[in-house]
Design goal:
The protein is an alpha+beta fold and about 400 residues long. It has helices at about 95-100, 110-120, 135-145, 180-195, 210-225, 235-245, 290-305, 310-315, 380-395, and strands spanning about 1-5, 15-20, 30, 35-40, 45-50, 55-60, 65, 70-75, 200-205, 255, 260, 265-270, 270-275, 275-280, 280, 320-325, 340-345, 350-355, 360-375. It has 9 helices and 19 strands.
């Protein structure tokens, strides 16, 4: 019998949540085939079969929190254990054809897959209302209760009037769901940032006319010749790296009674994924041009969506940019990604009347925010940093000149 155990998860990570099993008890497995996925606070870890055989026992169930080296299951190398599940059968519904569909290629959250397996709901027949058509747990609960299948709206529907019951499709007034390891750690880190730093935010606004015109002029050529879709984010990354050179304390870190100044910029880019918010970073962004930065951002975003981020992608960041504007946010106060001391928040570009040379003109304007740790960054430095970002974005040609 071969024990399947939780592998080392990375520096400072001691536990994970069993996200989903890809094999049922009694199924044959091949060497190297993924048996189970574990979700940590940073990445998703695939646990493969060390040798071929039959999965005879799943010790840890989906949703369980497990520590490093904990027993997840057992594989019978001889293959004789195929009948073992008869002594400890899985739920009856899980053996139905619907359970097989739940482990297929349908885009569904781990919680949705678990409920589908327990209730015998065919995920392939459920309409996903989550972002990108992902089937969520409420979608499966609705299907299991016999309620009409929800239809994802083509456009945002008007906000419904307040009702007494938060979830009406299942007839339940409340649904209790255990927080994932990633969500718990994210909550702890956010509280740590708020409690451990002198958190302060300063604001400015950027006229996006010049950079919008430059991007519009170059995007088709860049995509055709370099295979890169040019967004505004690489311009902001480039502007921020140059501003950090001018005000290095914004790129620093507190270590006890010392301030650690970093002669590099590993730029963290906040990315929203189905598993939650992650912040992979572009290594040595200060040494790269806009095209290379754009390639790196696109690669990291794809890895985040596919759940393929490595630990190296998520560690070592020195400064972070978050863009709430892609969701329509007009202004916000981002929370520092501790132990960093600064984070730049981008927002929605919106046409607004502004005074230009004594005349009122309509310009595409964006509010930007810098949240910073006031313990080592003075207000003057924070404001001047943000002003420098503004100057570079409003005159993007200046980014071609190294400070």
């Amino acid at each position: 019998m071969i024990a399947i155990k939780v592998p080392p998860l990375g520096e400072s990570i001691v536990e994970a949540t069993v996200s989903r099993w890809l094999k049922q008890e009694g199924e044959a497995v091949n060497p190297g085939e993924t048996l189970v996925e574990l979700e940590t606070d940073k990445i998703t870890v695939e646990v493969p079969a060390l040798k071929g055989g039959t999965l005879v026992k799943r010790v840890a169930q989906e949703g369980d929190v497990v520590g490093v080296d904990a027993l997840l299951g057992e594989v019978d190398e001889s293959g004789a254990g195929a009948a073992a599940p008869a002594a400890a059968p899985a739920p009856a519904m899980a053996s139905a054809p619907a359970a097989a569909a739940a482990t297929g290629d349908v885009k569904a959250s781990p919680a949705a897959r678990k409920v589908a397996a327990e209730s015998g709901v065919d995920l392939a027949a459920v309409t996903g209302t989550g972002r990108g058509g992902v089937v969520s747990k409420p979608d499966v609960l609705a299907a299991a209760s016999g309620a009409p299948a929800p239809v994802a709206p083509a456009a945002p529907a008007p906000a419904p009037k307040a009702v007494a019951a938060p979830i009406v499709r299942t007839g339940e007034r409340e649904v209790r769901e255990k927080m994932t390891t990633r969500r718990k750690r994210s909550a702890e880190n956010l509280l740590l940032a708020q409690h451990s730093t002198a958190h302060l935010t300063t604001f400015n606004e950027i006229d996006m006319t010049a950079v919008s015109a430059l991007r519009e002029r170059l995007k088709e050529k860049v995509e055709k010749e370099h295979g890169v879709r040019l967004s505004f984010m690489p311009f902001f990354v480039k502007a921020a790296t140059q501003a950090l050179k001018a005000y290095p304390v914004v790129n620093a870190q507190i270590d006890g009674e010392h301030i650690v100044y970093k002669n590099y910029v590993n730029m963290g880019i906040a990315v929203a994924s189905d598993a939650g918010l992650v912040v992979p970073n572009v290594k040595d962004a200060d040494r790269k041009g806009i095209l290379d930065i754009s390639r790196d951002i696109a690669g990291l975003a794809k890895k985040a969506r596919d759940g393929k981020l490595a630990m190296d992608d998520l560690t070592g960041g020195s400064f972070t940019i978050t863009n709430g504007g892609v969701f329509g946010s007009l202004i916000s106060t981002p929370i520092i990604n501790y132990p960093q001391v600064g984070i730049l928040g981008l927002h929605k570009t919106q046409d607004r009347p502004v005074a230009i040379d004594g005349k009122v003109e309509i310009r595409p304007m964006m509010y930007v925010a810098l949240s910073y740790d006031h313990r080592i960054i003075d207000g003057q430095q924070a404001v001047l940093f943000l002003v420098r970002v503004k100057e570079l974005m409003e005159d993007p040609a200046a980014m071609l000149i190294d400070d």
